[in-house]
Amino acid sequence: MTRSRLLIVLLSLLQVVSYGQCVVSQDDQKRVITICQSYTDPSGLLINRTDRKQGLSQTVYLGSEYLTYPIWQIGSFKVVGSQSFIPCGIAYNLLTNQVLCQFPGDSVPHVISPEAFTINDMQFVSRLNNKAKRIYYRVLYAGKTRLLAQYKCTFRPVSNEPYTLEQSFDGTYLRKKSFYIQQQDNTPLRPVQLSRKSVLNVLAVPPTRLPNNFSKKKITVHELVSALAYYDGFN
Question: Domain limits at 159?
């Protein structure tokens, strides 16, 4: 792909991101929190809220919708048809499944839709779902067999009626991680649990094709990676 064509493709993928008045930080207990502020019309609903000034609404959420903290990390991305990665600051929003990029000197970040991207030493690849939308997976092991992880985030609001001083947050961002095994390129991903039985079912092999010490019912990600590397040695 020529440099000019790559630039055209890149610009077509960029969308300017509009941020609200939200800041991701840590509290005095080192918990990641998201603080959002917005101006509202003064009303009686704010009279008993000692933590809110008249006309200014502030909400505090536990956690963040982004993969990392700080949300901006050193990264790079690759567009379809290119073999090279383009460096930029990367923030990955798990709630919206958006990858954000900010080049040096840019005043605002952009939403991109890359084929693959990196955040520090983490590598992510993508697959198109039935709506032609890119879904991103982190590569945990890449041998003949691949182990992928998908990260998701949901938001659970907390009701403030009736309001109590003991209630610290207005909502919580909840994380979920799912694992998948892919035995050949371009084959369907098969969900797998961190258990010996699930791994044997997905690979459809007898226990002798896995390490002798792979006998626990519950396993760790590291043990699963070691088992897949052992399994690849037979193929």
Answer: 3-192
